[in-house]
UniProtKB/TrEMBL annotation:
GO molecular function terms attached to this record: G protein-coupled receptor activity
Originating gene: LOC111132896
Residue intervals of the G-protein coupled receptors family 1 profile domain: 31-287
Membrane-related topology note: Multi-pass membrane protein
Predominant cellular place of this UniProt entry's protein: membrane
Subcellular location: Cell membrane
Name of the protein in question: Prostaglandin E2 receptor EP4 subtype-like
GO biological process annotation, one example: adenylate cyclase-activating G protein-coupled receptor signaling pathway
SUPFAM superfamilies: Family A G protein-coupled receptor-like (SSF81321)
CDD domains reported in the protein's UniProt record: 7tmA_Prostanoid_R (cd14981)
Organism: Crassostrea virginica (Eastern oyster)
TM annotation in the entry: 22-42, 54-75, 95-117, 137-163, 183-208, 229-259, 271-290
Protein family: Belongs to the G-protein coupled receptor 1 family.
Statement: the UniProt record of this protein carries the keyword ATP-binding: no
Family annotation (Pfam families): 7tm_1
Length: 359
């Protein structure tokens, strides 16, 4: 029969392992840094259209937040949890966490709205001042995040050092009126951002699916299929990572979760926080490194690399291209408007144009 005390200590050691925060710190900083480098190097291609401005703001927010707060987390693990957070350091940690997570969620919501208007209302979307408009949206989002993350530092609530005493956040396990009010406000704004993101992405997916049924051109159908998969991944990842933390905060504020033996928090709260931070780690891979443009570029680099190594015979490729061109010549012309890509295809029977929406 297993000793209850031994089982409890084993479970505690799992949650107090330094491996998860170390991996989150490394992948979070490196992934977002790579995303920023890719953005800068491909600036001539995307020309800093609104979507890419938002992606840049997201990478700066996620990477900067992880870089600023995780060293304080690792100090506690290095000291074997004997280090006691001073009040000032705990307030700093809670501010960075709340600001980074909320701002990231609001930027993702803004990116979904950007795709919604770009695909469903392209004429209204393509205005001359859309770049300035996007910069203003980013500024407003950061201001909202700043306000929500400083309320508990200005008297509406407090900071709390959560299990295993390695991270601080707004005190959503507190039972005072101020703590509960701040927790309700933070979680409701987060849940509204989540619902908005899911709603607009589903609307775009339905619109793209209708276009797939009406359009028989294979190039457009492939583009639309990629769009659907891309948006579905966004919805699934964001919901999985962001919803648990918001639900736990709301349930604590509504007294739907009983306090644990650790004094109100425990492994559950640590788990949902790590889920939320994981969203900041995955974001750059979804929005930059796994986008169709990036994957196409990697395929071209891979093909060129194989040519140099002699894995692919260049003459065979040329003959294949020549035979295909005799049967069907096609020329792709991309007109960058920020929301659509005009594709003109020339066949033996004439010309045909399609306009797949650009995500």
């Amino acid at each position: 029969m297993t000793d209850p005390q031994v089982s409890q200590n084993s479970t505690q050691r799992i949650w107090e392992s330094s491996v998860p925060p170390a991996l989150q710190f490394a992948f979070g900083v490196i992934g977002n840094a790579i995303a920023l480098v890719v953005l800068v190097l491909s600036a001539k291609t995307h020309r800093w259209r609104p979507f890419y401005r938002l992606v840049c703001g997201l990478a700066v927010t996620d990477g900067g937040g992880i870089l600023l707060v995780y060293p304080t987390v690792m100090v506690q693990y290095a000291e074997n949890f004997q280090y006691k957070f001073p009040t000032a350091l705990c307030n700093y940690s809670s501010f960075v966490y709340t600001f980074t997570l909320m701002s990231s969620a609001l930027i993702i919501c803004a990116m979904s709205l950007d795709r919604f208007f770009a695909i469903l209302y392209p004429f209204q979307y393509n205005s001359r001042n859309k770049g300035r408009r996007t910069n203003c949206v980013l500024a407003v989002i950061w201001m909202i995040g700043l306000v929500l993350s400083t309320l508990h530092l200005m008297g509406l609530g407090s900071s709390y050092n959560y299990y295993p005493k390695s991270w601080c956040f707004l005190n959503f396990v507190g039972k005072t009126t101020e703590d509960r009010t701040n927790s309700f406000l933070y979680s409701i704004v987060g849940l509204l951002a989540l619902c908005c993101t899911i709603g607009v992405n589903i609307a775009v997916i339905l619109s793209v699916c209708r276009n797939m049924r009406e359009n028989s051109v294979s190039a457009a159908r492939r583009f639309n299929k990629y769009t659907v998969v891309f948006l579905l991944v966004i919805v699934i990842v964001f919901t999985t990572c962001w919803a648990p933390l918001m639900v736990v905060i709301f349930c604590h504020a509504a007294s739907l979760i009983q306090v644990s033996s650790q004094g109100g928090d425990g492994p559950l709260e640590l788990l949902v926080l790590r889920f939320a931070v994981t969203n900041s780690i995955i974001d750059p891979w979804i929005y930059i490194l796994l986008r169709k443009e990036t994957l196409d570029g990697l395929k071209k680099c891979n093909t060129g690399f194989k040519k140099r190594l002699g894995i692919i015979n260049e003459s065979i490729l040329d003959n294949s291209v020549g035979r295909n061109s005799e049967r069907r010549k096609y020329q792709t012309k991309v007109t960058e408007t920020g929301s659509t890509a005009q594709v003109t295809m020339e066949t033996n029977g004439g010309t045909m144009s399609i306009s797949p929406n650009q995500v």
